C-alpha cells in the first residue's frame, strides 16, 4: 500500500454524519465530570455485572504456539486448541509471532486517538445506518437506536481485503503521527496469525489445513480492527462497557492492556468468568460462523466487557469475517447419520442482513 499522502485528508463535512445519534455523548468527558452514572447508561438488573473486572478465572486455557512448525509439537497444539474450542470457545495464545513492540505501538495509537479533542474525533464519526459494516468513531454501540448505552468509545477500521482497505484507508485517522502505518503493519501480521489459527482449527476438526480459510473466502476474507476505550466509571456495577454478545464472524483476536474487563459466559456453571490480562498475549474467541461450520462442536462464546471505577481500559479487537459471498453452513465432511446438520446453509451476506435487522437468533454459546 502507498504511504499516506495529503490527498488522504478528508473534509469533515464528508464524514460527520448524524453524530447526534451515533456519538450521542463523549463518555470520556462524562467520566471526568459525572459523580453518578448518567441514566442513559443504567442497564437493567438482569444485564448488570455479577463478577468483578479483576476476579480472574485461571482455568481459561493459555496455549503457546512455540514450535508450531514442527510436526511433533504441532500435534499437541492442535489437540489443545481443539479442546479449548469445544470446552470454552475462548482461550489465550502466547508465542504467536506478532512482535510485542508492534502490539504496544498500536495500543499507544489507540490511547493517543481517544485523547484527541472531541472535534478531531468527530471527523471520523460512524454512519448510523451502517451497522454491522460501519466503520469510524462512535460511542456506546453501532446501533443508532439504543435506549441504554454502553460505557465506551470506539473506532472501527475496515482493513482487509486489500481493495476495501484502500477505499477505507482515507477514513483512517491521520492523527496521531504514525497511526496508519502502524495499523497497516499490524493488520498484515494479524492476518498471518488468523490464517495459522484457522489452519490449526481445521486440523483439530480432522479437515485439511486450508479448509476453513478457503470456506470463509480465502484471500477475500474480511478483517476489521476495532479500538475500544472504556473510561473509568462512577458506578461500574450498574453498567457495562460492552453488552453481552457473540461476534458474528469467524474468529476474533483481542489484545488488552493490563486492566481486566473481558468476561466470557460459562454455560456449565452459569457464571461469567473474567479473562486475566497477559502481557503480549492475544485472547482468541470463536465467533458464530465457526460454531456453525463445526456443526456446534465448537462454540461461539457469549462475552461482555465490564468497567471499573479507577482505571481506563483499552482493547484492540481484530475480527476475521467471511467474505460476503461465502457459502456458510455445517461442513459436509463433518456430517453423518449420528451428526446431522444442526444449522441451515446460507450465503454470509444474508446472515448479515438478518443479523442487522435483529430478526436472527444468533447462536447463544450453547453448543457442545
Ligand atoms: O474489549 C473487550 O474486552 C471486548 C470487546 C468485544 O467483545 C468486541 O469488541 O466485540
Ligand atoms: Fe466481541
TrEMBL record:
Cited Pfam families: 2OG-FeII_Oxy, DIOX_N
SUPFAM superfamilies: Clavaminate synthase-like
Ranges for domain Fe2OG dioxygenase: 221-322
Gene3D superfamilies assigned to the protein according to its UniProt record, in alphabetical order: B-lactam Antibiotic, Isopenicillin N Synthase, Chain (2.60.120.330)
GO MF term (any one): metal ion binding
Keywords, comma-separated and alphabetical: Iron, Metal-binding, Oxidoreductase
Domain of life: Eukaryota
InterPro entries: DIOX_N, IPNS-like_FE2OG_OXY, IPNS-like_sf, Oxoglu/Fe-dep_dioxygenase_dom, Plant_2OG-oxidoreductases
Family: Belongs to the iron/ascorbate-dependent oxidoreductase family.
This protein's name: Fe2OG dioxygenase domain-containing protein
Lineage start: Eukaryota, Viridiplantae, Streptophyta, Embryophyta, Marchantiophyta
Amino acid at each position: 500500500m502507498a504511504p499516506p499522502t495529503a490527498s488522504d485528508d478528508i473534509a469533515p463535512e464528508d464524514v460527520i454524519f448524524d453524530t447526534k445519534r451515533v456519538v450521542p455523548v463523549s463518555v470520556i468527558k462524562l467520566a471526568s465530570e459525572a459523580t453518578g452514572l448518567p441514566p442513559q447508561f443504567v442497564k437493567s438488573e438482569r444485564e448488570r455485572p455479577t463478577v468483578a473486572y479483576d476476579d480472574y478465572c485461571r482455568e481459561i486455557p493459555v496455549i503457546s504456539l512455540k514450535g508450531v512448525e514442527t510436526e511433533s509439537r504441532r500435534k499437541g497444539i492442535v489437540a489443545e486448541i481443539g479442546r479449548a474450542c469445544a470446552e470454552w470457545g475462548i482461550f489465550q495464545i502466547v508465542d504467536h509471532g506478532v512482535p510485542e513492540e508492534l502490539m504496544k505501538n498500536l495500543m499507544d495509537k489507540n490511547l493517543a486517538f481517544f485523547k484527541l479533542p472531541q472535534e478531531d474525533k468527530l471527523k471520523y464519526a460512524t454512519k448510523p445506518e451502517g451497522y454491522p459494516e460501519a466503520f469510524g468513531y462512535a460511542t456506546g454501540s453501532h446501533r443508532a437506536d439504543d435506549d441504554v448505552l454502553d460505557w465506551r468509545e470506539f473506532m472501527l477500521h475496515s482493513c482487509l481485503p486489500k481493495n476495501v482497505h484502500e477505499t477505507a484507508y482515507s477514513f483512517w485517522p491521520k492523527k496521531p503521527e504514525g497511526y496508519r502505518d502502524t495499523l497497516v503493519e499490524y493488520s498484515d501480521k494479524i492476518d498471518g496469525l488468523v490464517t495459522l489459527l484457522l489452519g490449526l482449527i481445521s486440523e483439530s476438526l480432522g479437515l485439511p489445513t486450508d479448509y476453513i480459510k478457503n470456506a470463509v473466502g480465502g484471500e477475500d476474507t474480511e478483517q476489521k480492527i476495532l479500538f475500544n476505550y472504556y473510561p473509568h466509571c462512577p458506578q461500574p456495577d450498574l453498567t457495562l462497557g460492552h453488552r453481552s454478545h457473540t461476534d458474528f464472524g469467524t474468529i476474533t483476536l483481542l489484545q488488552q492492556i493490563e486492566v481486566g474487563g473481558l468476561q466470557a459466559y460459562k454455560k456449565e456453571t452459569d457464571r461469567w468468568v473474567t479473562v486475566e490480562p497477559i502481557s503480549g498475549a492475544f485472547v482468541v474467541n470463536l465467533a458464530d460462523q465457526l460454531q456453525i461450520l463445526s456443526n456446534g462442536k465448537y462454540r461461539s462464546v457469549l462475552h461482555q466487557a465490564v468497567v471499573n471505577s479507577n482505571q481506563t481500559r483499552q482493547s484492540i479487537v481484530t475480527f476475521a469475517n467471511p467474505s460476503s459471498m461465502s457459502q456458510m453452513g455445517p461442513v459436509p465432511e463433518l456430517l453423518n447419520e449420528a451428526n446431522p446438520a444442526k444449522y441451515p446453509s446460507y450465503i454470509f451476506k444474508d446472515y448479515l442482513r438478518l443479523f442487522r435487522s435483529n430478526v436472527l437468533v444468533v447462536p447463544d454459546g450453547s453448543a457442545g
